[in-house]
Amino acid sequence: MIGMMERRIADLRTEYASGQEQMQQLERRQADLRDTLLRIAGAIQVMEELLAAEKKQIET
Fold this sequence. Notes:
Elements: H1 2-59
Protein backbone atom coordinates (compact mmCIF):
# COMPACT_ATOMS: atom_id res chain seq x y z
CA MET A 1 0.00 0.00 0.00
CA ILE A 2 2.77 2.44 0.91
CA GLY A 3 4.61 1.68 -2.31
CA MET A 4 1.47 2.34 -4.32
CA MET A 5 0.94 5.69 -2.59
CA GLU A 6 4.56 6.68 -3.16
CA ARG A 7 4.27 5.84 -6.86
CA ARG A 8 1.06 7.85 -7.11
CA ILE A 9 2.74 10.83 -5.43
CA ALA A 10 5.64 10.55 -7.87
CA ASP A 11 3.21 10.41 -10.81
CA LEU A 12 1.33 13.43 -9.53
CA ARG A 13 4.56 15.38 -9.10
CA THR A 14 5.53 14.53 -12.68
CA GLU A 15 2.13 15.65 -13.95
CA TYR A 16 2.38 18.84 -11.90
CA ALA A 17 5.81 19.66 -13.32
CA SER A 18 4.51 19.01 -16.83
CA GLY A 19 1.55 21.29 -16.18
CA GLN A 20 3.85 24.03 -14.91
CA GLU A 21 5.98 23.79 -18.06
CA GLN A 22 2.90 23.98 -20.27
CA MET A 23 1.69 27.02 -18.32
CA GLN A 24 5.05 28.75 -18.81
CA GLN A 25 4.94 28.01 -22.55
CA LEU A 26 1.43 29.42 -22.78
CA GLU A 27 2.46 32.55 -20.87
CA ARG A 28 5.40 33.07 -23.25
CA ARG A 29 3.09 32.56 -26.23
CA GLN A 30 0.59 35.01 -24.75
CA ALA A 31 3.31 37.63 -24.32
CA ASP A 32 4.47 37.07 -27.91
CA LEU A 33 0.92 37.44 -29.20
CA ARG A 34 0.40 40.59 -27.14
CA ASP A 35 3.55 42.10 -28.66
CA THR A 36 2.44 41.13 -32.16
CA LEU A 37 -1.00 42.67 -31.65
CA LEU A 38 0.56 45.88 -30.35
CA ARG A 39 2.77 46.11 -33.44
CA ILE A 40 -0.20 45.48 -35.72
CA ALA A 41 -2.30 48.08 -33.90
CA GLY A 42 0.53 50.58 -34.27
CA ALA A 43 0.82 49.83 -37.98
CA ILE A 44 -2.94 50.27 -38.42
CA GLN A 45 -2.81 53.63 -36.65
CA VAL A 46 0.07 54.85 -38.83
CA MET A 47 -1.66 53.69 -42.01
CA GLU A 48 -4.92 55.38 -41.00
CA GLU A 49 -3.06 58.63 -40.31
CA LEU A 50 -1.26 58.44 -43.65
CA LEU A 51 -4.53 57.72 -45.45
CA ALA A 52 -6.24 60.66 -43.76
CA ALA A 53 -3.34 62.94 -44.73
CA GLU A 54 -3.50 61.74 -48.34
CA LYS A 55 -7.26 62.30 -48.52
CA LYS A 56 -6.87 65.77 -47.03
CA GLN A 57 -4.13 66.62 -49.53
CA ILE A 58 -6.31 65.46 -52.45
CA GLU A 59 -9.20 67.62 -51.24
CA THR A 60 -7.07 70.77 -51.24
